[in-house]
Amino acid sequence: MSARYFGASVARSEDARLLTGQGLYVDDIEMPGLLHVAFVRSPMAHARIKSIDLASARAMPGVVAAYTMGDFADLAEGPMPPMAPHPLIKEPLTCHPLAQTEVCYVGEAIAMVVAQDRALAESAAMAVMVDLQELPGVADARAALATDSAPVHLGRDSNLLASLHTKFGDVAAAFAAADHSLTESFATHRGGCHAMECRGVVATYDQREDHLSIYTSSQAPFMVRRHLATYLARDEQTIRVAAPDVGGGFGPKATVYPEEFAVALGALKLGQPLKWIEDRQEHFVATNQQRDQFWTLDVAFTKTGKILGLKGHGIHDSGAYAPYGLILPGNALVCFPGPYALQAIDIHLDVALTNLVPTSPVRGASRPNVAFILERIIDKVARYLGLSRDAVRAASFVRASQMPYFTGGVSRDGSRVSYDSGDYQKALDLALEKIGAADFATRQRAALKRGKLLGLGLASCVEDTGIGPFEGASLRITPKGKLVIATGAAAQGQGHATVLAQIAADELAMDMADITVEAGDTGRFPLGLSTVGSRIAVTAGSSVHVAAQKLRSKALHFASLKLEVSADDLELSEGAVQVKGVPGLKIPLADIARALAGTTGVPLPGGMEPDLAATAYFESSGVTFAYGSNACEVEIDAETGDTRVTRYVVVHDCGRMINPMIVEGQIRGGVVHGIGNALFERMLHDEQGQPLTTTYGEYLLPMACEMPNIEIHHLETPSPRNPLGVKGAGEAGTIPAAPCVISAIENALEAQLGKAAPFITHHPVSPLDVVDWLDDAQ
Amino acid sequence: MKAAPFHFHQPTTLTELAGLLATLANAKILAGGQSLMAMLNLRLFNPDHLIDINAIADLATLRHAAGKIEIGAMVRQHVLLQAPLIAQHLPILSQALGHVGHLQTRSRGTIGGSCCHLDPSAELPAMCALLDADFTVNGARGRRIVPARHWFEAPMQAALAEDEFLESISIAPWSSTHGHGFAEYARRHGDYAIVGAGALLEADVDGKIGRAALVLFGCDTAPQRLPQAEAALIGTKVTELDVAMLAAEARAQTMMTDAQVTSAYRARLAGIMIQRAVKQAQGRINKERA
User: Fold this and answer.
1) Nearest to B4 among A119, A281, A698 (CB)
2) What's the Cα-to-Cα distance from A179 to each of A300, A303, A393, B54, rounded to whole Å?
3) Which end of chain B has fewer CB within 10 Å, C or N?
4) Is-same-fold flag (A15-22+468-616; A397-407+417-464+625-778)?
5) B42 → closest Cβ in A281, A639, A766
6) CATH assignment of A397-407+417-464+625-778, given 3.30.70.120, 3.30.365.10, 3.30.700.20, 3.40.50.11030?
7) What is the mean pLDDT of chain A?
8) With contacts defined as CB-CB under 8 Å, which chain A residues touch B268?
9) What was the ipTM of the complex prediction?
10) pLDDT, position B276
């Protein structure tokens, strides 16, 4: 394989189309007779539905139909199928496409209206009369687990959905052997995904073909098809689900949603195509979020700062339902012990139901929460012992010589967690060097003269990426000699079409311009799972690589038969198979494709299989572990508490990089996301579960003006666990960013307040927090 | 998030506009649309008639006449920020405009729109209060002048009758030797301020304050002038201002509280921002005198 494209910052082949308005997002889909849907949503966090009266809505101008769940009784009934069943959840807890008897969060869909346009549909939705009997709502995961808490669901005696547990080693022995131990409690908070494109669905039913087509802004179109087929008791063959261009996913679009089902049911019922485009107000109340995790942990450590063990427990806010099972809390437990070599851990996590919109992964999926806790604990140990923060990390890291390193933990698939490769200390050393830690004190003194408190933050992380079992790919040479790559892996803007083409182009010695990628469409590839967990480069990337090798062998075999030359003496070059060293003696791939497409009555050479094509499902059985260290500086205005991140350095290792520009884009976006979690984004609810931050005036997304320059340095330790040596990169920017920024804030306050400086145990941190800390200490 | 149906009108003259307002019930005027369009889409307003005044050229004039700067209601924020006339005569307005939204919103947003919408944290109404602007109101019943102290009738409610519109805002510049200062705190660049402050100071030949104006915004539902602090400044030497007294006075004003910001934090910011604004003004006045 030549490396003409692999490793190069090739311009994204998607961009010319997307940047000139030629993208095809769900809302760009038009078809004759298309009608528009608006949902009637619960204004209460918990209520019994006494009655729903659609009569006035049906009489409104432009209204074609209005439905409650009962109207679909001939098509389907009951709650949606669970996406990720788990033995600890005895009864699946998913909502109905439209709620029938009870609503359990503000925003839960109750009825839908179909009209000529969206504005008319919204007017009619406002005319639907829903008689709700308000019930007590539970908004705090800790309160939900109190014995006297109101139930989140009528008829469920406990709000505890499940209790998860992870342990390895002898935690009692680790604590007994330790010189010191400490107990700390943490409150981590993350908001929603806030993709630029909200969700959206178009559904159309072809009665003659008995075929249902769904276009949805999703990370998991194959999951939508699978569960919709189950729900409708239809064969998957009669449903096509496609994710066209998708403007960002970040996790929440990997869930199968009630609106996808409801719009499909409406299209089946009405026999007309329907479109629903989620607006930003709906996104705030009806798209999954991540929100709260509360933790209390004991840490055991030596006087030299080596961490020996962790024990304790956490509470995870699941929201009102568990459409994605226990994936998000489960992930949290898999994240321990991070980049540190510990003797033992023993950690419990209770999953609490609340009357809030369900939670599911948001970029990082619990990894940022656990990184926050681990990094905060490391910083605390350093302060306690009077050691530097990097010294405690150095004493506790898994060392490069220990790779592959078995942490002692067990992965989601039941296998033993083993870190594949890397040098964690090297990443931290490089981050400290690049931020200029050595002369930080000089900068800090200079800042103080300007009345600003300067702080230096550090954080390290490790991230499991590329989880299996597979994303497949098929490659096919067309009669014009072009290559079409088809994969189930849906893209949401990551640049899959570019990187997958880079891999194939090198293997087949083709020009990128001759390659197209078709992705995320059940009509174009038979199987697919989900674009989550930084897994596509590893899974689909490796499948493209393996399929390209197969296709290459097939082309060489054909040419060796035709040219009567050993395949070993053949090579691929510029879209043709040629005899090595004899450029004139060649057969274009187009000719091979045409020959293998067959001619009636003419046998294929040498009994070859038809079609110049190959399919591969690389089995990603060993998880790859990306890692890195970040360092940053924050500047605090001691009067207002205003906190700005002024410098940010990322050192990151995701194995071999297919396209460094795309990796850097992922990292940079991820860091912005993490800075948002550190300083800005908070999804607030009142005690009853009413959301309080439902516009971008109230919910503060970080913007470009608030961002520092983000400086990125790469290490490239190939993963031994896939043929490309790659690891995932989609979430690594986010995971350590919040603890890095918080560490810097604490460092700044410590310089000012000494021992009176707070130990910061929550995020996001607001300027109100900062002035309180400054006031309390003085 | 789509607006409810409404009738759309686009007058091109003031007479036409006055006629529409006199005859249409439940009408709303559309200026730059930077707040109204979102509110329509959120259905916070459901007018039967939307009257777009963007095509009325007479509302978009900016002139210096009879010792006053007269700003048409439809003058864009971006135009004001770029105008040498404003920079020269109303420098505090230029400074404040730099904090109003972003380039994109300023290119549409208008001074009249901002002063009729009256967001409590908006910079432009606060500057009008500080500068004792006169609001020229027009309508089928004729023209009248509303001084700034009467403009803020109720929370987010200007002193306009249903059949009236804001035609222009006229402001008498302070002397060329005055000092101005503006400070605000917002979490993100371009956001409405949590709290902001403006200060104008004029000194006599002896370096004593002869005229002072101070304003806070974002603290309560409308901008707050600080008449006691202003009075206390008169006669003090510019070099010997008691900024601690000003801060105390600022902190003592009425402060709102909301889901994210407490009244105590607003009070703290009010004290800080008034000090910062006054110190800027002090520095500029000294420079002029030197």
Assistant:
1) A119
2) 8, 6, 17, 74
3) C
4) yes
5) A281
6) 3.30.365.10
7) 96
8) 640, 771
9) 0.94
10) 98
